[in-house]
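Before relying on records like the one below, remember that each one covers exactly one chain. Contacts with other chains, cofactors or solvent are not represented anywhere in the record.
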Amino acid sequence: MKEELAPHVSDITRALGGKVSEQEIEKELASYLNVYRVSLDTAKRSIVKKHGGNPAGLAVGINRTLRELVPGEQSVNLLVRLVSVNEKDVTPEGQGTKRILYGILSDPTATVPFTAWEPLNLPLARGDVVRVQNAYTKEYRGQVQVNFGTRTAVMREKPDALPEYKPAPGTGLPYLGKPTPVRIVDLREGASNVAVTARILSTDSREVEVDGAKKTVFSGVLADETGKTQFSAWKDFGLKEGEVVRIEGAYVKAWRGIPQLSFDDRATVTRLPGDAAPAAETLGGSPRMWVEDLAERGGGVDVTVRGILIDLREGSGLVYRCPECRRVLRKGACRIHGEVKGEPDLRVKGVLDDGSGALTAVFNRELTEILLEKTMDACIAEAKEAMSTDVVRDELSDILVAQPIEARGNVTSDDYGLMMIVDQAKLLRVDVQSEARQMLEELEGGAP
C-alpha cells in the first residue's frame, strides 16, 4: 500500500512546492483514506488546499474502474470501451458554437455516460478500447458522468485489452462490499458507498431539466447527534419529515465546500423506529465547532463558532448594491452593469478567530442594525452629515473588533478560505483569558 501511494505523495509534495515534508503528507494521506474513507483523488486535493496550494498542480491521475467513480473527482485514469459515440454542436454561455462528443463508456464493472468538451488527440469510434488519463467526474441525472477536458489524454489500446461489461442478472448493485457506517460530522467530499442513520428534519422537491428531460429531485436536511447535512435523493423514496432512516449506498459530494449526502436508485433506504435517533427537538440545535475542524471537513450546515472578531474587511458598514445583481458597487459602478443608482444596505464582513483558525463571517442588514443599535436610515443620515460612509464602518469597528462573538450559520469553503453566512450572532460577556485556556486545553486533547 505504501509503495502504491508513493507516486501520489510525491505528486502532492510537488504541488506544494516542497514546503511540507513527504513524511507529513504520507501520514495525512493515510488518515484521509483510512479514517475518513474518501477517494484518493479527493484526499490529494484536500491536502493541497489545506496547506495553501493549488490542486490544479496535481499531475498524477488515479486508476479507477467505472464502478468506483464518484462525482467530483478531478483526475482519474480509466481503461474503457466505447459503447457509443455521438457528436453535437453546443453554444456555451458567452462562447461561440463548438462541437463535442458524448456517449457511453464501459469496463468489466459498469457503464457510465461521458462527454468530451475539447478536441481529442485521436478520433474515437464505437467499440474502441482506450486508456484515458486525467479525466474528471460530475453528477449527471443523479449518477456519475465522466468528462474529458483540456488536460485529458486518450490512447487507443488493442480490442482484447478489456473484457466487455456483462452485469449479473438481477443485480445492478453499484458498489462492491458492505457500505461504511459514517456519522454526519465525518462526511467528506468524495466518499462513496456510505451508510448514514439519521432523522429527517425537512423535505422538499424540485424539478430540474437534465439533457432536455425533466427530473424530480427530492432534497432536505437530515441530522444525527453529531450535526446536520443537506441531502439530495434522485429517486422518490417517499421520505417524510420526522422519520428515522438508514441510507445505505450513498455518496458524498460538495456544494461550495459543504459535504452533502446524495443517493439514487443504487441506494437502499430502511425506516427505523423513532427512538433509533435523538428527538427532532434535540437535533434542531447548532453544534459548536472549531474552525480547524470546519477547514478540514470543508464547511458545515448550521454550526456555531465562538471566537474573537479580529478585523473588519473592506466593504463592511454602509454599502450600495447594484439593483440588478445585488453586487456591492465600487466607486458607484457595478462590474457587470456599469454605473447604476445603488440601493443602500448594511453588512459586516469580519474575520472571526477561535484560536484554531479563522473564517470570514458575513452579517446581514438585520444583524448589523442589532449590533449597531440603530437603523439603516439613521446610518445613511449619519454618513450624509459626515460626507463619508467610513463613519459607519468606524463605529462598527469600535463595537466589534477585539470582542468575543458567538456566530451561527452555514459555513462554505472555496479557494479563498472559509466563509460563514451568519443567521444569529451575539456579543459574549466572557472571561477571555479563561475562554482561551479552555480552547487550548480542548485543542491539545485535554478536554472533550
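The chain has four domains: 1-60, 68-172, 180-283, 291-443.
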